[in-house]
Amino acid sequence: MTRHMLAAATIALMAALPAAAQEFTLDARYTDADGDLVADIPSDPAQLVDPETLIFAYTPVEDPSVYVDVWQGFLDHLADVTGKKVEFFPVQSNAAQYEALRAGRLHIAGVNTGGNPIAVACSGFRPFAMMARADDSFGYEMEIITHPGSGIEKPEDLAGKQLAFTSETSNSGFKAPQALLESEFGLKANEDYTPAFSGAHDNSILGVANKDYQAAAVANSVLKRMIAREVVSSDALQTIYKSATFPTTGYGLAHNLAPDLQAKIKEAFFSFNWEGSALQKEFEAQGETKFVPITFKEDWSVIRQIDAALGVKYTCN
Question: Disulfide check for 209: which of 57, 133, 234, 236 has CB 3.0–4.6 Å away?
């Protein structure tokens, strides 16, 4: 989906959501003098860092060990471009990723769609890239899945049933389905259906396939990768709802990395050759072949609107 198509889908989506207003602000430790909604790079050289070893983490939506080898070729390229050592940090939760960014233990990260606002607001995260297809289209959809024979054929059938979410910071795994089920079908969490939390998209998908959960809300980008790897069979699952398209994982930096280093890291993302890489093999299920530049202010506006409609507040501890 192109940015213009996403904007149109956003208008249709937000028309169905309850009216709400919330100003997006950063934690007091960060500044935003240029109004781009992300933390400024510090102007005081004493506040900048230029580490000998760069730490990279991919969003913890699946077993982190799967991605050590997937990302290694890219990390080797990143090391060549920056002249730094680069290590993969297998974070176990979204909260751990945000805390590592905020504490300075993590320098480069792929943060899940719904988590970008809290990482930006509370951890000084500066997203700049996203995966896209050859034609520059991008994104994924939220799907509500069940297993054959569950008795759930359409969203309305979730009434009185259990629905698995992933975590409260996830867009497709919690915030979007909660908002859409209420606005489109009048189904409220804890009133009309019982929420459960699996912790990750792969847990939800496997849980439905194994009939541990009656249904689950998941990112279909994860679902496609798991089917392509034959971790789960498509015959074990049934989709009863598919959303409009959302932006996918945002890749970005800790705000206080030295400006020259930030520029080299961005160069590494946009100069990486995907052809024949492990990264291409992993993500080709949804056709992604490159990194494209994004801005948090523009490309994550739909996610901030969903958060506002749900009354989400970014409380930074």
Answer: 236
